[in-house]
Amino acid sequence: xxxxxxxxxxxxxxxxxxxxxxxxxxxxxxxxxxxxxxxxxxxxxxxxxxxxxxxxxxxxxxxxxxxxxxxxxx
Length: 74
What we know:
Elements: H1 9-18, H2 25-33, H3 35-43, H4 53-73
């Protein structure tokens, strides 16, 4: 069953940029909203970093500094 929807010009253009030659707009929408596909994209990186506790603490310090700098700019 097909449904008609209304999109802004900007939304249509964004979907059109995502659409491949062999894709329908329905395919594009499903690709963008399916949580299982997004999850699988990230799951392939699970366990990729094998850092020790010292590396993790150093990484946390860098994140904290970056967040502080970002907050100052706002």
